User: Fold this.
Amino acid sequence: MASDAMTYVKDQKLIEGKTKIIWSVKDHPDKVIIENKKAITAFDDPAYTQQFDAKARYATETTSRIFEMLEACDLPLAFVRQLSPTEFLAPKVTMISLEVVCRRLAVGSFLERRPDYCQSKRPLRFHRLVTEFFLKTSKGKINIDGEEIDPGLPQVPAKEGTKSLDDPLIVDAFAEKWQLFHPKKPGWDKAADLGVDFDPSRIKITKELLEKMELINRKAFLIIEAFWANQGFVLVDWKIEFGITTQGELVIADVIDNDSWRLRDPEFKEVSKQVFRDGGKLDEVASKYGYVANMVSQFRLPNQALVIWKGSPNDKSPEVPEIPGINKVEVVLSGHKKTQACLAKLEELQRDYPDGGVILAIVGMSNGLGPVLSSHTSWPVIGIPITVKELPEDIWSSLRLPSENPMVTILSEKNAVLSALNILGQKNPAAYMFRQIAIEQLDAGY
Assistant:
């Protein structure tokens, strides 16, 4: 980290906001250094801003580890590496003037706009992630590379006088003209409609770009949702931003830290910035930020195995998608003819993949392989009797099993692979994302 700090030297201050500073990098015009500050804000109102010393360090740690995890899952990011406790290096991008929200639970401003979704106990969980777009403004203006665009937003009350209504909700981001609504008023309230029809082409937004942003946002959320779920936490929602690199690539940009989301611990207590918004004491807020930063630093992709175990080299292997953290391992050993070799190989696999695995036992005729394996490992074993169409009676050796043989039988190779990925996805966020995207897509449009 020290050598990186010496290699990349801050040059000119490009932008300074409430919580971070963006610096140009000497001799690297395509890079920037993002420096986090000690400030914590609320309600987009400077009057609520406070500071605690460790805020910059916790924000940098959390963002860097989150971005590293997303990068390991092959998502496009404006991130190179962490340079210091309070700084990280990123490619220079042109920021898109939108805030993109993903919601798993119905809370916060969503409930203010949709009180009909309110439940008496825990919040409603959306089976399919809800995505919302908000027009990003500051003091009522949109800033694109120093050029200000005025969408004509109204003034609203603030802690000290009035202020411009920032970050309005875009009712339908895929419409030709955007209707801008109050982010916290229900649609049936006449005051919700801000009376503004905004042309998205003014900020170079296209339908294709929106679709890409929505998909990347959903994938990123699902990955981090799974990481937190492995610790017993619930990622309630988040708000992130995007940018375009000098090569024209769409990337997740800015930061993803404890300011970006609502996050509940195993007791369903808030540990994010929401604690500060709700009036929590600053030392309590600082403690929770430190706790989250420490938890994030422990996240990692597992090293798992999806074993295609065949009784004969003539047996065809099913197609398995490439997913980070999952190693496709092919084994050809007969359970009937080489039982001792099978059990030795099984011990090797369990030694080499301590994060676990799933075995697909692909054999024909009398399927002794799957039952032999399932009685000697706690790894899930899925039997695929590939001769069942030609010889239906072969299925009985996969279905009528003795005690202590918990093998599962699935006739479809494709479904067997999906079942294996569902199992591995309980620990592997990349596999969880791969499956959950497909699952939620089944209900798209309904």
In short: The chain is about 25% helix and 30% strand. Residues 99-203 form one domain. The longest helix spans residues 207-229. The longest strand covers residues 234-245.
